[in-house]
Design goal:
This protein has 150 residues and is an alpha+beta fold. The protein has a single domain, classed as 2-Layer Sandwich (Yope Regulator, Chain: A). 26% of the residues lie in helices and 39% in strands. It has helices spanning 2-13, 22-30, 39-48, 107-114, and strands at 52-56, 63-74, 77-88, 94-102, 124-128, 132-139, 142-149. A seven-stranded antiparallel sheet has the order 1-2-3-4-7-6-5. Helix 2 (22-30) packs antiparallel against helix 3. This is Lipoprotein.
Length: 150
């Protein structure tokens, strides 16, 4: 206890900022705020958040579905269910998608907060700089937020 208090005082006096909570890190993946998003970093953040695999295929398959004990704030909405999917093309190019399920939410509400407009074919998509696309999809009563990194 004394050692912990000494460390906290030393960290505070040195001006060091504490690392972000794992839930905050996870939110950056699914909201397309993380430019260099690696699947391994996402899965490490799931572990730091105390998350458990709900569905996980063989590691080389590149996908998994996870639950976390504390909700991840995704555009102001809580999510305890996250997933990752990695697809590798025949040319060896990789696309990784990070997903969050927002329970009992309406896509228009999430889109308004996230700044995503509906396109001409009725989809909510927003290109994010040069590295990805944010997708919002209504699935029954839930909204799926997906960040696709190309």
């Amino acid at each position: 206890m004394i050692l912990t208090a000494t460390f906290l005082i030393a960290a505070a006096s040195s001006g060091a900022t504490p690392p972000p909570a794992p839930e905050t890190v996870l939110a950056t993946f699914v909201s397309c705020e993380r430019k260099k998003a690696r699947r391994e970093d996402f899965e490490a953040a799931i572990g730091h958040a105390g998350g458990k695999a709900m569905i996980q295929t063989h590691p080389e398959a590149g996908e998994g579905e996870y639950s976390v004990p504390r909700p991840v704030d995704v555009f102001g909405f809580p999510s305890r269910r996250l997933a990752v999917q990695e697809e590798i093309s025949d040319a060896g190019l990789s696309a990784v998608t990070y997903l969050a399920q927002l329970d009992r939410t309406h896509v228009a509400d999430v889109a308004r907060i996230a700044g995503v407009d509906k396109n001409t074919v009725g989809e909510y998509r927003k290109p994010i700089e040069k590295f990805g696309t944010l997708h919002l999809t209504q699935m029954g009563e839930d909204v799926i937020v997906a960040c696709v990194h190309d």
